[in-house]
Design brief:
The structure is a single chain. The protein folds into 2 domains: 244 residues, Alanine racemase (TIM Barrel); 119 residues, Lyase, Ornithine Decarboxylase, Chain A, domain 1 (Beta Barrel). Helix content is 30%, strand content 23%. The chain contains 12 helices and 18 strands. β2, α3 and β3 form a beta-alpha-beta unit. α2 packs across α9 and α8 runs parallel beside α9. The longest helix has 19 residues. The termini are far apart. About 3% of the residues have low confidence.
Amino acid sequence: MKSTDLLKVARDFGAPVYVYDSEKIASQFNRLSNAFKGVENLRLNYAAKALSNITILRLMNSLGSGLDTVSIQEVKLGLLAGFKPEAIIYTPNGVSLEEIEEAAALGVQINIDNLSILEQFGSKHPDIPVCIRINPHVMAGGNSNISVGHIDSKFGISIHQIPHLLRIVELTKMNINGIHMHTGSDILDIDVFLYASEILFETARNFKDLEFIDFGSGFKVPYKEGDIQTNVEELGKKLTTRFNEFCDEYGKQLTLAFEPGKFLVSEAGYFLAKVNVVKQTTSTVFASVDSGFNHLIRPMLYGASHEIVNISNPKGRERYYSVVGYICETDTFGSNRRINEITEGDILCFKNAGAYCFTMASNYNSRYRPAEVLWHQNKAYLIREREDFDDILNNQIDVKELFSTRKERVSAK
């Protein structure tokens, strides 16, 4: 998208606002598909948790994507967006057996990541196909909060528990049709990913009726010009060769599955915020915007870096600014950034705002969550209205009769 397009969105829909470029999403989907064109059966399941607006889900469905879900609510959103049940995989963590049974009743692919639920589900529903999530004990990811395949992770069934897992499968006679792993986000070292894949292949040999192997995702996208990223083309060549070899060894053509989220939508997203105050202190120039970590928490939560551009003054002299929000505690988007000179009222654009941005927004400080806009074929479409005060009160119950108004004390004269 051009800066002029983004400024038009800010003018027409107000700021703060999230904007998503459908053309970039489609481009990323096609890039990943082409990287694995040597695989006979490839399935890309979009990770709904990255950006779950129903219009985005419909876009993914139109591209031929499947859907990766982590909650029963995401499953229902996917069905409402037009995904067929068999195109949805449900991969929760730490949920109740009842929720898993509810998802199974909707006909989606179940993915179980702990022995307790596996045994309970297999005992009650041995005929329902189940995928098993393995923890390969491989550390990968750009931050400890998003590395989910290491030995201390809560996710997956440890490879050291395979004998126990096999005993459960044998006793329950359950149908295991898939094996899955997810090492974490921001994967850079392809060899580490391939090493984890070998563990998955070795595990898969224990099951004779598999239909697919799911390698998770976590491909790193660039957050600024010149930033390092996952070379999906190189990974595609190497993993395709190894996967096809395994299928020959296994004696059956399996489906290779991924569940990309950030890779598909991160670079397609822009967050626009208006500058309220430019504040000079003894050591820092602050640009305070009409937003905060209630709208974009990743910098404070993960130390994530989002490039910040002044689209109102793209040719202005560069100065150093610390861009901060209006939340009543430390609320920093970026410290000492070189940005074209900022004036109060300017619109700042935060790039890479498509993944884990709006979906993690909140009403902290009783602030409204922003609008969402889809930029599709050079036209802006509102896909979520900005919240208002009624939304803040929605579902609250004001029990007025519990408390009476305190009377003022009258002092004697």
